[in-house]
Amino acid sequence: MLHIGAHLSSSKGFTGIAKDALQIKADTFQFFTRNPQGFKAKDIDESDVQNFLKISEEHHFQKFVAHAPYTLNPCSDKPETREFAEMVFKDDLKRMEYVPENYYNFHPGSHVGQGVQTGIEMISALLNKILTPNQTTIVLLETMSGKGSEVGSCFEELKQIIDRVDLKDKMGVCMDTCHVYSAGYDIVNDLDGVLEEFDHIIGLDKLKAVHLNDSKMPFASHKDRHEQIGKGTIGFDAIVRFINHPRLKHLPFVLETPNDLNGWAQEIKFLRENFNG
């Protein structure tokens, strides 16, 4: 079975997310833990959480992905920005334990001219500071497109971060199809080769989730511009090969395409019809 969903609004709480997921016939999803451009997070409503867990069990939801705000940058050159990253990260991981055994995804960050190695060291230092042995949440590094001074646009950089983390069993990777294609990994013409490279460098056991997006930009453009499935430079056929690949088909796939609920419902319907599981 294809495990697929979309990035849904968290404004109505966990119950609202669950209802939206059911509306588009999704069995997984993603949401922002708080305002993606800011700090504030809604208070946890324990009755809402319990209602969500009940719906999740009844409808056999798979593991979901919580997404950190874009403003979280653990390798900033500004101490106050790094302090903000630590505060948000700690708070989000604490909140995630209300819905245990899921994923928390974040953009590794931008080194803003300090150099990739400095960025890698800062990111791994923060992870070593906040990860705990008893947490059930797996933290995912997202593959990036390589725009500006982003860290994590190549598998080697993600591997270096993971290598420096003490609690490696709490770490994984979320592969974004738009990002890796824009970063120069040819998932259209050489998906097997890309996966072999990932496996050799990081290990496919660390690949826990996928952001399933087409791209508005050409191959190796280092631009992060998502497109609806089949309407971009990756194309429908390559996306279908991706979800059907025997080394990937078991993963949760999350659409971050520019769409509304009806649009995501159509994408999910088309992809399920073309899934060979």
Could you characterize what this model shows?
The chain is of the alpha/beta class and 277 residues long. It has helices spanning 13-23, 46-58, 79-96, 116-130, 155-164, 177-183, 191-201, 236-244, 261-273; strands at residues 3-6, 30-32, 65-67, 103-106, 138-142, 171-176, 207-212, 214-215, 226-227, 252-255. It has an 8-stranded parallel sheet with strand order 1-10-7-6-5-4-3-2. Strand 5, helix 5 and strand 6 (171-176) form a beta-alpha-beta unit. Helix 4 (116-130) crosses helix 5 (155-164). The longest helix is centred in the first third of the chain and has 18 residues, at 79-96. The chain is globular, with a radius of gyration of 18 Å.
Give a summary of the structure in a few sentences.
The protein is an alpha/beta fold and 277 residues long.
- Beta-strand residue percentage: 5-15%
Global morphology? globular
List SSEs in N-to-C order: EHEHEHEHEHEHHEEEHEH
| Strand order in the largest sheet | 1-10-7-6-5-4-3-2
Give the number of DSSP strands: 10
In round numbers, the mean pLDDT is 97
Mind sketching the topology for me?
Blueprint: E1 3-6, H1 13-23, E2 30-32, H2 46-58, E3 65-67, H3 79-96, E4 103-106, H4 116-130, E5 138-142, H5 155-164, E6 171-176, H6 177-183, H7 191-201, E7 207-212, E8 214-215, E9 226-227, H8 236-244, E10 252-255, H9 261-273
Helix pairs in contact: 1-2, 4-5
Keywords:
single chain, 277 residues, alpha/beta, two-stranded antiparallel sheet, 9 helices, 39% helix
